[in-house]
């Protein structure tokens, strides 16, 4: 049913594009015939907006990875630097939440560790929506912020780092085998708001996969059982993402390419002082509208990263 609904949506989208194209071409012809420049201008503007939509749909049609249709787990971790980096991590959490809301996606908070003075040490979000993982997977890596620190009484410029990790939510069609002997399960008290029950019992769960050292935690559920299920789903997603990255690295190595796939490389720089600029270091796409980006306007970067990756894939096969 899920696959059928996806195909229905894609077909409907193409039909709507065809109809809008036909309607606006007809309007231009009528406007020119009657000498109505306002009608022609409006129809031309509508066609330009349609062109932008078609380009995005074209990119979406190329999201054909085995997990690209899936929902996504998105984790943000503050880097070294205490309050500065923890505040930056919270800014990134807000940025991705805004982006998701703008695209009609649902965002759920699975786990959050607050900073001592401000911001967060880490957070894990679940983003549910059409091709959420396909779009967000390119955000894996380190994000760098340069600004005048609001926490520095001398108003000095600071550089902060935070890392982002994105994994696909695994559905029943993908099997991940995990043996009980490879797991260490710890319970602890949940942080933050959530009612008396959440704050007074050890309902939060952290699962460590001993062979890989991969850790997954959840504290959003009202019961330990609920949080264990969420943490296990996140752990499976992280293990699957690690396997996908291994495959990509092996494929790149087979083609004699250098690759920076994976977690830990710097992918984007956000400068708020002495000038305004956000620049992606992989695609060289940049904008001076830093506040817009921090408010969730990420599409230019996501589209460029996807097109860049597809171009590299095309070069491999040519």
How would you characterize the overall build of this protein?
With 318 residues, this protein is of the alpha+beta class. It has a domain at 2-61. The protein has helices at 2-34, 37-61, 83-102, 132-136, 195-200, 224-254, 290-294, 299-317, and strands spanning 72-78, 106-114, 120-128, 141-148, 157-168, 183-188, 204-209, 214-218, 266-271, 277-280, 286-287. The longest helix has 33 residues, at 2-34. The radius of gyration is 23 Å and the shape is globular. The two termini are 36 Å apart. 29% of the residues are buried.
Fold topology:
Blueprint: H1 2-34, H2 37-61, E1 72-78, H3 83-102, E2 106-114, E3 120-128, H4 132-136, E4 141-148, E5 157-168, E6 183-188, H5 195-200, E7 204-209, E8 214-218, H6 224-254, E9 266-271, E10 277-280, E11 286-287, H7 290-294, H8 299-317
Parallel strand pairs: 4-9
Antiparallel strand pairs: 1-3, 1-5, 2-3, 4-5, 6-7, 7-8, 9-10, 10-11
Helix pairs in contact: 1-2
């Amino acid at each position: 049913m899920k696959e059928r609904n996806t195909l229905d949506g894609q077909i409907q989208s193409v039909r709507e594009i065809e109809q809008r194209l036909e309607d606006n071409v007809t309007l231009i012809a009528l406007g020119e015939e009657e000498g109505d420049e306002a009608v022609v201008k409006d129809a031309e503007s509508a066609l330009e907006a349609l062109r932008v939509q078609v380009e995005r749909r074209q990119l979406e049609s190329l999201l054909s990875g085995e997990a690209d249709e899936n929902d996504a787990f998105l984790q943000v971790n503050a880097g070294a630097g205490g309050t500065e980096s923890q505040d930056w991590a919270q800014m990134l959490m807000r940025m991705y939440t805004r982006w998701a809301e703008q695209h009609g996606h649902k965002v759920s908070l699975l786990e959050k560790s607050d900073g001592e003075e401000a911001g967060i040490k880490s957070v894990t979000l679940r983003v549910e929506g059409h091709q959420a993982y396909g779009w967000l997977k390119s955000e894996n890596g380190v994000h760098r912020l340069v600004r005048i620190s609001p926490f520095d009484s001398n108003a000095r410029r600071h550089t902060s780092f935070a890392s982002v990790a994105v994994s696909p939510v695994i559905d029943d069609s993908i099997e991940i085998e995990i043996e009980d002997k490879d797991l260490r399960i710890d319970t602890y008290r949940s942080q933050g708001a959530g009612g008396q029950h959440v704050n007074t019992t050890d309902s939060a769960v952290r699962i460590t996969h001993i062979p890989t050292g991969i850790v997954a935690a959840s504290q959003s559920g009202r019961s330990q059982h609920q949080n264990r299920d969420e943490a296990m789903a996140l752990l499976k997603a992280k293990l699957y993402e690690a396997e996908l990255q291994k495959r990509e690295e092996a494929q790149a190595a087979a083609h004699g390419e250098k690759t920076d796939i994976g977690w830990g490389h710097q992918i984007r720089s956000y400068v708020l002082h002495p000038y305004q600029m956000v620049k992606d270091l992989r695609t060289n796409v940049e904008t001076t509208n830093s506040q817009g980006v921090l408010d969730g306007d990420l599409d230019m970067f996501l589209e460029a990263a996807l097109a860049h990756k597809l171009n590299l894939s095309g070069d491999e096969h040519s």
